[in-house]
UniProtKB/TrEMBL annotation:
<comment type="similarity">
    <text>Belongs to the 3-hydroxybenzoate 6-hydroxylase family.</text>
</comment>
<dbReference type="Pfam" id="PF01494">
    <property type="entry name" value="FAD_binding_3"/>
</dbReference>
<dbReference type="InterPro" id="IPR002938">
    <property type="entry name" value="FAD-bd"/>
</dbReference>
<keyword id="KW-0503">Monooxygenase</keyword>
<protein>
    <recommendedName>
        <fullName>FAD-binding domain-containing protein</fullName>
    </recommendedName>
</protein>
<dbReference type="GO" id="GO:0071949">
    <property type="term" value="F:FAD binding"/>
</dbReference>
<dbReference type="InterPro" id="IPR036188">
    <property type="entry name" value="FAD/NAD-bd_sf"/>
</dbReference>
<dbReference type="GO" id="GO:0004497">
    <property type="term" value="F:monooxygenase activity"/>
</dbReference>
<dbReference type="InterPro" id="IPR044560">
    <property type="entry name" value="MOase"/>
</dbReference>
<feature type="domain" description="FAD-binding">
    <location>
        <begin position="53"/>
        <end position="391"/>
    </location>
</feature>
<keyword id="KW-0560">Oxidoreductase</keyword>
Amino acid sequence: MAMSFLLPIYPPTQSPLHSSARSYRWFSVRTGSKPVCLAMTRAQTSGGDLEESVVIVGAGIGGLATAVSLHRLGIRSVVLEQAESLRTGGTSLTLFKNGWRVLDAISVGPQLRTQFLEIEGMVVKQEDGRELRSFKFKDEDQSQEVRAVERRVLLETLASQLPPQTIRFSSKLKTIQSNANGDTLLELEDGSQLLANIVIGCDGIRSKVASWMGFSEPKYAGHCAFRGLGFYPNGQPFQRKVNYIYGRGLRAGYVPVSATKVYWFICFNSPSLGPKITDPAILKKQAKELVSTWPEDLQDLIDLTPDETISRTPLVDRWLWPGIAPPASKGRVVLVGDAWHPMTPNLGQGACCALEDSVVLANKLAGAINGGSESVEEAMESYGSERWSRAFPLTVRANLVGSLLQWDNPLVCSVRDKFVIPKLVRLGPMLEHTNFECEPLYGSKT
Ligand SMILES: Cc1cc2nc3c(=O)[nH]c(=O)nc-3n(C[C@H](O)[C@H](O)[C@H](O)COP(=O)(O)OP(=O)(O)OC[C@H]3O[C@@H](n4cnc5c(N)ncnc54)[C@H](O)[C@@H]3O)c2cc1C
């Protein structure tokens, strides 16, 4: 049986968060097992302006940050998320200063900062726990800011900035089709359909939107990661440092997140992706076996990890070779974050980069929608070329750093531990990629 519901749109100057005299206009969307209809994608404001309807696929970091950025610019979007709710499990992400610049630009930085410890530096150790080197972030760069942020809290904070009903859960995109006038027909798994004027694909590494645009599947990088979030009810015992332990073809790391939580990971070489394992007991056992002779802190941390936060992920990426990879947009469909440039987490930059994308895209789209000199298509192309020169080198660099750190040759590892790390490594150049001047949201209504 088909049913119908309403989507509000509002003029840029009257976002529901900021105006008590809300002036919604409503238009009908129908869904059902026999999909027939569709959202109107444009509506006329009382002042006669044209408004665009924007559909974002995926309520992850990229999707929500894009929706918030657009919302700050007075542009309403609808976010389709396949899951029934925001991802509540999962672990943490390390966000560097480029991520924080974006969170500040969209006005959620201060709220998040109060919940997560600022990390002062990093320590690199050998398998037996002996320290090889230690660094302080601010010694190299006064403006550096590093915090491990719980993914759940980040998602909830972003979602809380959006008007009610913006996120449509249990809405899994199934197919995409563009029509003659450039609008895009999105069909969901439940059979409902939506006609969108602008589509922003933020649907992560297995993006349906990206594969429709001709992107290849991401490639396995040869290593997998266990991750978890240790919980110390009486307070965690660690200094505010990222701790790295390097072995042969195996490395681990842990970093305090808050007064009671510590994020950890173990990265190990594996010729194949291996079976998908979700049983937390098996995951814990396997993780502990890998580092059974390593410092006890790590073993304790794994023991203190709640089941819902432990996971094992094969690491993948996709290199956006010029002339080979398709552009970031096709017509009025564009990609953000992992959907476009999945990268291995060796630089801790995937989410930071998705955040950067969101503000750059929102500014360009808002310019076009609000009658700037560029069309929406041109704005998306301009976003694609600006962001390609950022994302492609980062993806390659993250992969190469990963290969280097995962070396298992005993001679190479010995040179690394005796010479390269103690004598050669400098933190400044290593974190140079976190330099990103985040533009403000031009004409933000907040
Ligand atoms: C082991 C590991 C460690 C990492 N550590 C860091 C780090 O320290 N710092 C950092 O910056 N980054 C890190 N990353 C990378 C980071 O997790 C990603 O880059 C980031 O999550 C990308 O955000 P996204 O919004 O593009 O994609 P996602 O977070 O994957 O969100 C995609 C969303 O789309 C939804 N979706 C998917 N398909 C559909 C569909 N068909 N229909 C509707 N919805 C759909 C999904 O349910 C999901 O909610 C790490 C990654 C890994 C694997």
